[in-house]
């Protein structure tokens, strides 16, 4: 090289490997876009199943062609195409990924592989879901940096990290009397406060621990997976979180005790929206269901803050009895409602359900039902006054950003913890976990949408302001993202 020539500095190259489910893929794709905007090369590893669904539901796959520094790679998830990939199937999905997808991934990033250290597109670092404990071994083997990005809530993940302590202190397992997928009965007092979860003192009760704690079998596959994850999380070079400092400061400081590099860069959807707005560039949907946009013109005709939006996300399922209890509660509350009824989200065939006249009439007068909604757009709509949610972390953050108070009806994993934080810590709504009775549903909707409407809206508005400030220039998430980019640039291949 001539003396006056400056060396060509290659942009860093990250390989992102999400858990192949709607929530994590959506969130990680948004992170990928943020990276692209900062001139980082991104390889996004999707399963064939997710890629095919993205392709058939959105213009997403084409949209990403606008970033020359982005590429998709795909691997099989090993499950037959017709298998459901609902929440209760996650352990199966993980087993299958380990057997089928992980060997391909390992080959891809190892010496001689397409993205190996000796290739022309070497990876600077791997960013994978925290539940992928295999990533620590692979990264160590190749001598590459690893950042874990758990797309669940930090408060939820921290409760996972506390599991060994809870077991050691005898707070787990509970004494379980009987258990079914939907209703749990215990001889333990579920309202008893948990004492051995540092940073959550006085907040979490037994009933607010993640759903998988409701077992007397500590050898259950999901518990074993989480205990393994607990050991691997501190081995990563850093942890990325979809949250912002002012929402979860105490929990983030607990994480700093186990991993010095913490990047709280969320709410990621809002972060990306802000950066794209600066470039007058549109956002895209990462949906793996086709969005029914007919609900938007319906919302346009409803009065301000009069509609409650109901959705239980992409994985939760309910029984037919629960469906009818919620339905009666909604209709009896007198509130207008927009309800997402995802195909397959109710056990049994919905065609066999006989709908009582009062429900069909009430729905015709005040309701709108769709199979999948453009949720971010819905939550941003001025007609929406509240969100009846399962508290998946993406939904919770989307609601926070739009300043919409919540009614919390958690289904599983971190959602029990999230709903407790929404109700008790952030005071952004009402937690009705473990109940599903039409009288309670009616009462709680009236409380949120009428009796305490102003109080909740004011609080939600304040939190929305903090969330948006965090992703604005100079905000905590904005700064953490810059620090993340700088740290990645300093990583050696
Ligand atoms: N979502 C959507 N339309 C719907 C329901 C959900 O676009 O009708 C999106 C929602 O905006 C969120 C994601 O699906 O980004 C669900 O993720 P979350 O973490 O809330 O829950 P999960 O589906 O993982 O349980």
Can you describe this structure?
- InterPro entries: UDP_glucos_trans.
- Keywords: Glycosyltransferase, Transferase.
- Belongs to the UDP-glycosyltransferase family.
- It is an enzyme of class 2 (transferase).
- One of its GO terms (molecular function) is 7-deoxyloganetic acid glucosyltransferase activity.
- By secondary structure, this protein is of the alpha/beta class.
- 43% of the residues lie in helices and 14% in strands.
- The strands form three sheets. The protein has a seven-stranded parallel sheet with strand order 3-2-1-4-5-8-9, with helices on both faces. A six-stranded parallel sheet has the order 12-11-10-13-14-15, sandwiched between helices. A two-stranded antiparallel sheet has the order 6-7.
- Helix 1 runs parallel beside helix 10.
- The longest helix has 20 residues, at 90-109.
- The model has no long low-confidence stretch (mean pLDDT 93).
């Amino acid at each position: 090289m001539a003396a006056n020539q400056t060396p060509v500095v290659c942009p860093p190259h990250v390989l992102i490997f999400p858990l192949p489910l709607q929530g994590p893929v959506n969130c990680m794709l948004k992170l990928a876009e943020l990276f692209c905007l900062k001139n980082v090369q991104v390889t996004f590893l999707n399963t064939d199943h997710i890629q095919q669904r993205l392709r058939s539901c959105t213009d997403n796959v084409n949209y990403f062609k606008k970033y020359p520094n982005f590429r998709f790679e795909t691997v099989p998830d090993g499950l037959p195409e017709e298998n459901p990939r609902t929440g209760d199937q996650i352990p199966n999905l993980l087993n299958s990924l380990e057997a089928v997808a992980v060997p391909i991934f390992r080959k891809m990033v190892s010496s001689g592989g397409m993205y190996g250290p000796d290739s022309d597109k070497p990876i600077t670092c791997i960013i994978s879901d925290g539940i992928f404990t295999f990533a620590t071994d692979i990264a160590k083997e190749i001598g590459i940096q690893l950042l874990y990005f758990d797309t669940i809530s930090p408060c939820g993940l921290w409760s996972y990290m506390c599991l060994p302590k809870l077991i050691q202190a005898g707070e787990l397992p509970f004494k379980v009397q009987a258990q079914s997928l939907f209703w749990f009965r215990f001889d333990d007092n579920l309202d008893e406060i948990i004492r051995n979860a540092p940073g959550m003192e006085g907040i979490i009760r037994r009933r607010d621990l993640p759903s998988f704690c409701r077992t007397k079998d500590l050898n259950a596959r999901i518990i074993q997976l989480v205990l393994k994850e607990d050991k691997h999380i501190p081995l990563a070079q850093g942890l990325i979180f979809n949250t912002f400092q002012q929402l979860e400061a105490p929990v983030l400081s607990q994480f700093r005790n186990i991993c010095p590099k913490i990047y709280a860069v969320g709410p990621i959807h809002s972060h990306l929206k802000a950066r794209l707005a600066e470039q007058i560039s549109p956002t895209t949907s990462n949906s793996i269901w086709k969005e029914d946009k007919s609900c938007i013109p319906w919302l346009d005709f409803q009065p301000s803050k009069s509609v409650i939006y109901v959705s239980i996300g992409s994985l939760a399922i309910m029984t037919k009895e629960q469906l009818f209890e919620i339905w009666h509660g909604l209709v009896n509350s007198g509130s207008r409602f927009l309800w997402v009824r995802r195909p397959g989200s109710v056990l049994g065939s919905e065609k066999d359900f006989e709908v009582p006249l009062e429900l069909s009439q009430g729905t015709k007068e005040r309701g709108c039902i769709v199979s999948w909604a453009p949720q971010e757009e819905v939550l941003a709509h001025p007609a929406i006054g509240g969100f009846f949610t399962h508290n998946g972390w993406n939904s919770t953050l989307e609601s926070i950003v739009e300043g919409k108070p919540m009614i919390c009806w958690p289904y599983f994993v971190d959602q029990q913890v999230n709903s407790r934080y929404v109700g008790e810590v952030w005071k952004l709504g009402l937690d009705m976990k473990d109940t599903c009775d039409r009288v309670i549903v009616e009462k709680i909707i009236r409380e949120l949408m009428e009796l305490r409407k102003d109080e909740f809206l004011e609080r939600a508005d304040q939190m929305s302001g903090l969330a948006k400030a965090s992703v604005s220039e100079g905000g905590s998430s904005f700064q953490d993202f810059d620090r993340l980019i700088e740290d990645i640039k300093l990583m050696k291949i």
